[in-house]
Amino acid sequence: MDQRRARAEKIDEAIGVVRAQARAADRSMAIEVDAYGQITQIRLAPHAAAEGTQQLERTIIEQYRAARADAEAQAHKVYEQFLRNEKKEAAPAAPSQPEWADPDDVQPVRLWTDTR
């Protein structure tokens, strides 16, 4: 159980630093979200509501969705990299020669001969 918890904490830590940002084309607002879809920052320009609050609301939702999709994609890449690194660490090093090989024995030994 401790190994699974430690592994989950490592994954959470790696994914926890992911941030994605999206900005409105008119630069009226920008939004930042983390890998879990939580808004971490919103910046509004003075002219953000110049076209009305309904337009600003639509822009915020649109940019939130874009930032969230980007954060999810980044988190997925981080998780895949974590798994690749885990496999590399867990893979045993391939021996240069079989364990049964005697480095001092340079002559091949025939173990079986077909006598038919």
Automatic annotation (TrEMBL):
Region (Disordered) location: 86-116
Pfam family, one: YbaB_DNA_bd
Protein name: YbaB/EbfC family nucleoid-associated protein
Species of the source: Nocardia tengchongensis
